[in-house]
Amino acid sequence: MKMATGKTCSQVSALQRARNAVLPLAALVIAASMFTPAMASPAKKAGPKPHAARAMPNTVIEITAVAPGQLLIEYRLPPGQTSATLIDPRPELHQAVRQPMMRPLDACAHLEEQRIVLDRPQCRAARFLVSSRPMVRNALYEAAQPVSDGSVIAYLPYFGVTVPGAGLTWSLRGPRKGYVLYEGQEGATREIRLDAAAVAQGLAHLDTPDGYRMLHAADYAYFGVTPIQREGSTRWIADPQLPAVVRDEIAKVATVSAQALTQASGQAPRRSMTVIMTASFEDGGRQRGVQMHGDVTDTSTMRLSFRTPNAKPSERDFFAWRKFVAHEFVHVWNSGVYSTDSLQPWLAEGQAEWLSLSLLREAALISPEQQREALESAYNLCMLSAGERPWAGNAASGLGQDRYTCGLSFHWLADAGARLAEAHPTQALARWGAQVRRAPHLDQDAFLADYTAPASREAARAALTSQAPLRDTLRRWIDTSGVMFADTSTPPTPMIAAYASQQVFVPLGEADCREWGFWPEAQGLRIDPQAKCKHLVAGALVQSIAGVPMPAQAGLAADRVRAACANGPTVAVQLDDGRSLELACPTEAMPRLLFIRLLAPAEPTHATATPGSRS
């Protein structure tokens, strides 16, 4: 885990570095002759029929696998056109994807934030070389991710363009001895033609996923030589470097997830699925400790990337893999069987978190203790991140981890309240299946009306819609849900302690430093070696704040800081070398950090226990 702006390092093998390097143009020509498919000479264009209206030719986007790990994208614009508008022109894509990955191959064109521009009248095409490399960015698909055998998985919407009044042609070409797989169809080449009317219709609906699907710009394309395995309507592609233990585990969990979701909902997605598993990705130091990353497109392609384990996987590794895969399978049902309100991201992400835990527990693939810890952590992380503000002003943004942690907490508490109200409690998956049959679209109103029990509905409504801090409203909701828990000022797990330490240390560090960062370690908080501070020492380990050990006792430390600042202007900080520093008190009062510890079982107790806190 990386807190604030601390630096990390990642190890990249020589093979990976070579694969991600950009080939010189001379080498590219040689490589292309071995890797690209054979192309027939272009036929002469037939002249227009007499009296026929001249339609503007299509904009052509030709993407070819030219060398291991590299794609050549050629944009051919209609005559008289000097620019094409990117289908997805978000500034973050220009910075994170197109600018670092796309290199012009000649002086004919250049790339701008929202368009491709031809620079010379005699040029009719813009040609860019895309060198694949993993990004591992939250809320972004992988633009062009390499596979160990030279294959590339690319998210085509990031490279799509249109010209007003023109149709669009996608022309995809796989490697010479391989294939291209796109939208569930594979072959040496893949071509999709859209007329101008179809393009206009898609552009008019780009505020919804339907618009991208109309433009055939909503999926990953796999330019590969990797063997494809088929099981029913599902295609499986596994990176050759992925260990067998990972492949076998993913296949098992995928089968269990698909069967459980189909049985519960009574139906399966109509589209065929493609599951692509890649081994070992780089995170550039952005996500300390990340072991996997993945997503599902609206057209049912699931991408799963795993950091190759260097030793025998632990039970914690298996738990993380299982939950990760089950979560992504729920998303497949979310886009193929039912839908959720896209303006409330917590509905989809929270439900995927809750149903993945539920189906894995019902299949005995995770233990009651693992489920309990996941639920406990989600609630505590939600409170640390979003507890001080109303949820009503946060839900639509869908930023950060709140949609996962708070979303899981909401779905869990709704289900717990429903179980409490039932004489014979229904399993979570069966209850979800009945809800999907009744209402195939889920928004916040439907969640409150159909997912929450009458006894806890008003508390749930207050948590989701009122202007009171979520810390207070969610507490009232859990009190009415039947869940048994105990309050504690001690973070229940090291992960919670690490996040809680940020709440305590960041206000102190920001008052003392111009540039800084830190990350938690077992015995303290390590300050970034490049930090520039008045009193804090770059690279030092902060062992205690206000006399309280960190990060293990972050809740008590927050209380001590609040008390110290009520009686004076500074707080004592102890370093590992014995030095004691006095840091200025933060400008705002430090909130009280209170955590919950769930009492087994995690489900509500029906007969003998009274719900609520037990201190």
Describe what you observe in this structure.
With 615 residues, this protein is of the alpha+beta class. Helices cover 36% and strands 23% of the residues. It has a six-stranded mixed beta sheet with strand order 4-7-2-1-11-14. It is globular, with a radius of gyration of 27 Å.
Which tags fit this structure?
615 residues; alpha+beta; 6-stranded mixed beta sheet; 33 strands; 23% strand; globular; disordered N terminus
The computed structural class is alpha+beta
Mean pLDDT across residues:
86
Beta-strand segment tally = 33
Give the low-pLDDT segments: 1-46, 283-290, 605-611
Q: Terminal Cα separation, in Å?
A: 30 Å
Gyration radius from CA atoms, angstroms: 27 Å
Strand order of the biggest β-sheet: 4-7-2-1-11-14
* Major β-sheet annotation: 6 strands, mixed
Task: Give the strand content.
Answer: 15-25%
> Helix share of residues?
25-40%
Number of helices: 16
Q: How would you describe the shape?
A: globular
Spell out the blueprint of helices and strands:
Layout: H1 14-20, H2 25-35, E1 59-67, E2 70-76, E3 83-86, H3 91-101, E4 102-104, E5 109-111, E6 115-118, E7 125-131, E8 144-146, E9 152-155, E10 161-162, E11 168-173, E12 179-182, E13 185-187, E14 189-194, H4 196-204, H5 209-214, E15 220-224, E16 228-231, E17 234-238, H6 244-265, E18 273-279, E19 292-296, E20 301-306, H7 315-336, E21 339-340, H8 345-362, H9 368-386, H10 402-421, H11 428-438, E22 441-442, H12 444-451, H13 454-465, H14 470-479, E23 484-488, H15 494-512, E24 513-515, E25 518-521, E26 524-527, E27 532-533, E28 541-545, E29 548-549, H16 554-567, E30 570-575, E31 580-584, E32 595-598, E33 612-613
Parallel strand pairs: 1-11, 17-18, 18-20, 21-22, 23-33
Antiparallel strand pairs: 1-2, 2-7, 3-6, 3-10, 4-7, 5-6, 8-9, 9-15, 11-14, 12-13, 12-15, 16-17, 19-20, 23-32, 24-27, 25-26, 26-28, 28-29, 28-30, 30-31
